[in-house]
Structures are given as structure tokens and as C-alpha cells.
Amino acid sequence: MKNHFALLCLTIASLLAPFSTLAQETNSPLVPLPSLDDFSKGNDGWAVGLGLGVEYETAYEGSDEFGLEIQPAGAVQWRSGDNLYYFAGEAFGWRGLRDDVWLFEALLGFEEGREEGDSDDGHLNGLGSQDEGFQAVFQARRAFSSDWRYWLVGRVVTGGDGNLGLFGVGTRFGEQTDGSGSEINLVAVFHDSEYANKGFGINDAQSAASGLDAITLSGGLRSIGVDYSFRHNLNEHWQLYGEALFEYYSSEVRKSPIARSDYETEVGVGFIYLF
Could you give the domains of the chain? Predict the structure, then answer.
């Protein structure tokens, strides 16, 4: 799937290149936040950025196993004024800026399921595999000023297996307004009982097959987390980006035998070429 994405983006990039001269000049990226890529360089029309990144992350939610994974990076985008439409990996989405301080986003993305083989140490044996599927994500950020130095953020993730909500505050470092620099967000994450048990619940049949104690979780606080993003323009075409995430689980989640660690973490770095 990931290789198909890279090939598709390269094909689209070659098809769109002759139309780059049709872009209309504007003044700035949609919002100057390094966590939100905008390859338009302030122009209306098509924009393409392609690259690769390396991620070091937990094998699954609650795992104490870690591994490296190479991921495609970038997106195919279409900008029209204060609206940006994009295809990135396994997600289609839209972002819209309103009144200079409101940013709205909606996307439909692909969610990978969990398989017993995700644990090399066999900690998921007997729990069965979870189906892959699609999920919808809705997000809003409210800046305290038009320079996007500080903001509030809220996000809702919904699909066939429950709902998750995120609420937090963020700040941007540096004086750049071109989308480079760095930012950090502090968030609280909540889930309903269906979403909680998808990741950490163990029913009687799974308990008998795995030897783990059965557990049913209720909805509520899932975790407290912090995420950091940076983006640096090496030159007109090349970007260096990075991200780090740390999520500390609530006491209820930590009671689950699936949560062999009290936290989840991820670190990634990569390069993107802007056409």
C-alpha cells in the first residue's frame, strides 16, 4: 500500500508539473504551523511534496516492544485561497482558515488493524486480529492571535469501533511565518467504552485463548500527552521534518494486561522534496 502511494504521487507530480505556471500568487501558507504541511509556497493551485521518513515507535498500543519503520511522506495538494485539499498516504482531507484565527480540518483516513503478529514476543497471542477500516477525523484550532503563537485544539476521531476526543493547548516557537520552526502541544485524550475496549479490553473468549485476565473498560480519560513537531527549509525544494510523541495512559488503561507499558512513544524524522 505504501509503495503504491509513493508511485501514485510521483505519477501525479509529473502530470501536474506543466500546470504549475497557472498558480496564482498569495502571501503565506494557510497557517504558519510546522505540524501542518502546506507545499503551496503561498500559491493557489496544485502543490506536491514527496519524501521518506524513519519512525521509531511502539509495536502497538500498550506495547513495551519498539521498532524502526520507513514511511512515505508528503502529499498532493490543491490550494484555493483559505482552503487546502489534500491526498496524503491513506487519507483524503480538507483544511480551511476562517477569520485568520480559526482552522478547521476534516479527513477520511485508513486505520490499520492490530494483528497477533505485531508482538514479536507473543504478548498478543490468543487475542485475535482486528479488522482494518476507515475513520473520520474532525479538528479545530482556535488561535489567540493571527500570528498563531498560541492556540486551543480539539479533535474527534470516529469510525466503526467507537469514538476518541482530544483537547489541548499549543504554542509555536521561532519568528518564521513560512511554516518552518517548531511547535509543541499538551493534550488530554478521552475515549468512549467501545474505543477503549477495542484497544485494551479482553473478553472471556480472548481470556481463555490467551491466558490473560478478562477486563472491560469504561469510557473516560485515556491519557495525557505531549507532541512536538519541527520543519526546516533546507532550500527552495528540500524540507527536513521531525516529530515526537509521548502519551501517558490513565490508571484504568494501565490495569489492562495489554498495556505492558504505562506509556506510548514515537519519534520520526525525514525529508520531503517540493516540486
Answer: 2-274 (2.40.230)
